[in-house]
Amino acid sequence: MLRIYFITAFRSLKKNKSVSLINIMGLTIGLTAFLFILHYLVYETSYDRFFEGSERVYRVNMSMTKDGASTYEGTQTPRQLYFALKREIPGVEANTLTYLERCLIRNGVIGYSDQNVLWVDEGFEKVFQLTMLQGKADFKKPLTGVLSASKAKALFGNESPVGKIIKVNEGMPVEVTGVFADLPSNTHLDAEYFISIKTFVHFGWIGEQGNWNSPDWWNYIRLKPGVSKVEAEAGINEFVDRYMAFLKKEGKTAHFHLQQLPDLHFISGLENEFGAGTNPKSLVNLLIVGLLTLLIAWINFVNLSTAQSVKRSHEIMIRKLIGASRFHIWLQSLIESLIISVLSVALAYMLYQVLLMPFAQFFSLPLEHAYIPSGKIVFFLAIACLTGIVFSSIYTSLSIFRMGVFTGRKDVKGKSGFKKGLVIAQLVISIIFISGTIIVFKQIRFMQNYPLGMKIDNVIILSGPASTNTQGEGRRTKFLSFRNEVLSDPHFIAATATMNVPGDEPRWRSSEFVRPDAGIQPGAVFCSNNADDGFINTYSLKLLAGQNFSVTPANNTNKILINKSSARKLGFANAQDAIGKQIVPTGNNRKPVEIIGVVADFHNEGLHKPVYPMVWNNDHPFEFGFYSIRVNNQNMQEAVAQLQKIYKRHFPEDPFNYFFADELFNRQYFSEVRFGKFYILLTILSLSIACLGLYGLLLHFINQKRKEIGIRKVNGAQVSEVMLFINRDFLRWTAIAFVIACPLAYWAMDKWLSNFAYHTEISWWIFVVAGLVTLFITMLTVSWQSYKASVRNPAEVLKCE
Amino acid sequence: MLKINELKKVFRTEEIETMALGGVSLHVTEGEFIAIMGPSGCGKSTLLNILGLLDNPTSGKYFLNGIEVGHLKEKQRTDMRKGNIGFIFQSFNLIEEMNVFENVELPLVYMKVKASERKKRVEETLRRMNISHRATHFPNQLSGGQQQRVAIARAVVANPKMILADEPTGNLDSKNGKDVMDLLSELNREGTTIVMVTHSQHDASFSHRVINLFDGQIIGIEKKIGILA
After folding, report:
1. Predicted ipTM?
2. Closest residue of B to A318, CA-based?
3. Is the pTM of this model over 0.80?
C-alpha cells in the first residue's frame, strides 16, 4: 500500500516540477541556514565537554562586599583556598591551582611571544585529562611542562621535544616532559603550554603555603560523583569564617561560588575571566533567529503544498469516491512532504558539509578543530524536520478537508487568509532583517567614527619584552634606553610603557581609594594602570589641570594621574581642585598618593561601556605590558621597519611583535561586525525564501485566475492593467508587512542598541529603505510571471476552459 | 437494494436557500437498471450524490440494503461505500499520476486487499474490459473510450452491488458510447444494480425504468422492461 503512495507522490512531484523545485530549494536554503546555526550553537554549548565528567568540574569564583556594596566579583581566589579544598572538603575528588600568563617561549633561535602559558600543579591532570601523545606530565617537579602537538611542531619541527629544554621569558629553562594532543578550539583553557607551578616556589617568588589575602589564582575542583554543587559550596563558604576573619576588620565579607566547567566560556561579568568570550544572551537570540529561518522555510513549504492541494482537489475527490478516508489523504500528503523534506535535508546536509568551513572563515569562527558531538546536530535536525513534516502535512490535509472535498460542497477554492498571513509573516521577517542589517552597520560606523577623547591613529603598539622579566628596575632602565633611541629617530614623536593599552580591558578594575580630607569613600570603582611621562603625548590626551609625570621616575614616587571621572568620584568640584590632594588606596599598609594631574575623560574601551574613573601610577608594567609609540609620518611601513631595528638592538632575544592601536581598538567591535555579516546573510536567506514562496503563490494565483485574465483581456484590458490586477495583492501584502514590521524592528533594534553606552539613532529612513528594498524585490519576483500571464493570447486560455 | 422516503436537500448560503430536492421517494430493487433524466439543475446530480453517500440529505430517509444511511457521519459513509458502490463519471475522473493498472487497483488498496489478490483481480477486470494491453499506460495516453473503460474497470473491480453512473457517455462518440452502454448492460445482467443519470434517450433505453426529475421532484416514472426484453 505504501508503495503506491510513494509512486504517486513521486509522479505528482515530477509533474509539478517548478513548484516541487521551488519547494525543495526553499526548504534546502532554510535547512542549510538552520544547520549552520545549529552547528554553531552545538559548538558553543559543547565547550569543555570533551573533558570526561565535565559536569563535575567547577571553577571556584569569589565575590567580596563592603557595607553591602560589591568590591570584587572575580574568577581569581587565594592560594590557601587550594590547600583547604584538598584538606577539608570531602566531596572534592581532585583540585588544581592554576595561573595564566602571556609568555615568551623560545627554543634556540625560534621564539614566540604572547604565548598563553597555564602554570598548574600536580592535581591538574586529575581535573582535566590531557591526551598525551609523547611522554607524560610531571607537575610535581619545578621547571617541567608539557606542550601541545602544534606548538611542539612549531618549536621543534619533526624532532621529539621530550627531554629537551624550552626557555620561558627571561630564559627560565623548562624541561618538556610530554606532548599532548591539541585541545579542541572550544575550550576555555586557552593555553598550549602547561608548566609546573612549583617553578614559582623553586625561584622563591611564592612561599610554600600562600595566603588568604590575595585572590590571584584560579582554583578548579572536580567533585566526587553524587556530590552536589550546593553541598560543596556550603562547605567551601565555611572557610570565610574559619580563615578569612581579617575581612571583618575591614568591614568586608566574602563568598565563594562554583561555576560549572561548560559554563566558563560564557561572559559573566567577572574580573579576570580567561577564555570567556560568549554572551549567553546572544546564543538565545541566535536560536530564535535559527528557528525563525526554519519557520520561514516551513511556512513556504506549507503555502506551496496547500496551493498545490487546491489544484489537486479534483484528484482528492476521486480518491475519496473510490474509498480513501481522511487518514489516507493525510498519509498521501505526509508522504509527499516526506519526500520533499528528505530530498531537501539531504541537499542541505551536503551544502552544510561543503560550505561549513567557508562559513566559519567568513565569520572568523574557529570551527575547524572544535569538539562537535555530531549526534546532537542530527538529533535536533531530525526533530526539526519531523515536526515540520508532521505539522505541514496535518495543515495541508486540514486545508484539503476544509475545501469541502469531504463534505460534498463544491467550494474547492479553500480559504486563503491564512496563506496570505504566512506570506505576510515572511515579508515581515525580511523587513526586520533588512532594517536590522542597516542599523547594525550604522552603529558600527558610529562607533568607529565617534570622538574618543584620544588619538589612536599612527600609534604602533609592541608587546613588552619578556626577556627582561626578572630584572626588576632594570626593565625600566632598558625601556628608557630603548625609548631614547626611538625618540631620537625622526619617525617617532612619543613613546610610553603601560600595563594595558586602550581597547584592552584594564587588569585592575576594582581599585579602591578614599579621600580622607573630605571623608569620601567612593568604593572599588577605579580602574588602575601603569604609565609614564610619555603616556599623555603618545595618546594625545588633554591635561586639564596639574602636570604630567616627571621624566625622572624617582620624582614620581607616590604620585598619580587621574581622569576627570575619578576627580568627580572623589568629590572634586573641578580638575584644578584635585591637584596636590592626597588620596589613599585601601588595604594593608598602603601609603597616601598625591594627585599631580587630571586628564580629560577618554574612551579607554569601546562604546559598549561608559567612560569610567581611571588612575595611573608610574610603576613600570610587569608581565610585560605594552610599549606604545606615536609615529610622526604616514609612512607606516618605513616606521615599523625602523622600529624593529631599534627594538632588536635593545631586546635581541624577544620577537618583534607589533600591532596598530586603532586596529586593536576596533577589534572590540569584532562581534558587532560579525553580527552585521550574519544579518546580511540572514537577510539574503530570508528574502530568497520569501521570494520563492511569493513566486510559488504567484504561479498558483495566475493558474486560478487564468480564465479571469483571459476575459479581462478580451474585454479590452491593457497589459499594464492586467499586471496591476495580478500584482496588486502582492503590493498590498508588502504594505501590510511594512506596517507590522516597523514597530517590531524598532523594538528589536532599540533593545540591541541598549547594549551600548553610546549609540546611534534609529532614523526613520532605515524603515523606508527596508520597505522599498522589500517592495522592489517582491515586484521583481512577481512581475516577470505576471507580465508573461498578461501577454498570453486570451483565445488559448478561453478555448481550454 | 435502496429505498428513499421524502428525501429533501436544501443548500443554504448567507443570502439564499435553494431546494435541490423537494421530497423524493424511490425504491430500487437489487439487479435493477435505473436511468434518471431531467433538465440541468433539476437535482439529478444531488440525488446521485446522496445515493452514492457523498452527501447527506437535509431530511427524509435513505435505506441501503435495509440500513438507514441518510445521516451517517463522514467516516461511516466512507466505510459503507467501500466495496458496495462504484462510481462512473462523464469526465472519467482517472488519477493522472497513476497508470491504468494502478487506477483500477486503488479501491482494492483502500480496502486493504492483499497485493497478490489485487493483482489477480485487476488483471481479470482489465481483461474483461478489454484494456489489458494498456495496463502500464497513463490516462493521458488513452482515448476517451479507453479512459471510460478504465473508469468502469475501477468501478467494478471491488465487485460493488451498485454502480452509480453520472452521464457515462457524455464525453464519448457514439461508437464508444455504445460500447460503454453494452458493458453496463452486461454488468447489470450479471446482477449489479445500476443507477445512471443521463440526458440521452438512447442511453436511457438500456435501463429498466426511467425516473424523470424536474425542479427537485419526480414527475414521472417510465418502465422500459418490456421494450428491452
Report:
1. 0.70
2. B93
3. no
Shared domain for A642 and A600, answered yes or no, is: yes
CA A214 to chain centre: 31
Closest residue on chain B to A407 (Cα): B55
Phi, psi angles (nearest 5°) of residue B107: -60, -35
Chain A residues in contact with B75 (beta carbon < 8 A): 325-326
Residue A800 placed within a domain: no
Q: Per-residue DSSP letters for A663-726?
A: HHHHGGGHHHHHHHHHHHHHHHHHHHHHHHHHHHHHHHHHHHTHHHHHHHHHTT--HHHHHHHH
Bridge partners (DSSP) listed for residue B22: B8
Q: Of the ranges A82-96, B52-66, B149-163, which is most confident?
A: A82-96
Query: Residue A589: CB partners within 8 Å, gap ≥ 6?
Result: none
Q: Which of A322, A327, A335 to substitute to test the interface with B, most B CBs within 10 Å?
A: A322
Which sign, positive or negative, has the C-alpha torsion A174, A177, A182, A183?
negative
Mean pLDDT per 10-residue run, chain A (801 residues)?
81 83 88 90 92 95 88 91 94 95 89 91 94 94 95 94 93 95 92 95 87 91 95 94 88 92 87 77 83 82 75 76 80 85 92 91 85 90 87 79 56 57 84 90 91 94 86 88 95 94 85 87 87 95 95 92 95 94 80 94 91 93 90 88 94 90 89 83 82 80 77 73 85 93 93 90 93 90 84 64 42
Where in the sequence is the domain holding B112, given as residue range(s)?
30-43+73-228
- Shared domain check, A36 and A10: yes
Residue B185 CA to residue B168 CA, distance in Å, equals 13
- Choose the closest CB to A15 out of B97, B154, B158: B97
Which CATH number do you get for residue B106?
Answer: 3.40.50.300
How many domains are contained in chain A?
A: 3
Angle between helices A326-362 and A17-45 (to 10 degrees): 60
Q: Are residues A242 and A323 in the same domain?
A: no
More confidently predicted of A523 and B127:
B127
Q: Which of B21, B96, B100 to mutate to test the interface with A (most CBs of A within 10 A)?
A: B96
Residue B12 maps to a domain: no
B contacts of A6 (beta carbons < 8 Å) = none
pLDDT at A404: 58
B95–A319 C-beta distance less than 8 A:
yes
Q: Are residues A187 and A89 in the same domain?
A: yes
pLDDT at B229: 35
Could you say which of B52, B109, B158 has the minimum Cβ distance to residue A4? B109
Inter-chain touch A315–B78, beta carbons under 8 Å? no
Domain of A410 in residue numbering reads as 1-47+280-415
Residues 72-131 of B with CB under 8 A from A: 74-75, 78, 81-83, 87, 93-98, 102, 105-107, 109-112
Min distance B95 CA to chain A CA atoms (Å): 6
Q: Which of B17, B23, B32, B10 is nearest to B62 (CA)?
A: B23
| Residue carrying C-alpha cell 572563515 | A361
Q: What pLDDT score does A495 carry?
A: 96
Q: Based on the structure, what is the number of domains in chain B? A: 1
Separation of alpha carbons A156 and A135, rounded Å: 15
3-class SS of residue A596: strand
Nearest to A419 by CA among A772, A696, A16: A696
Q: Report CB contact under 8 Å: B109, A408.
A: no
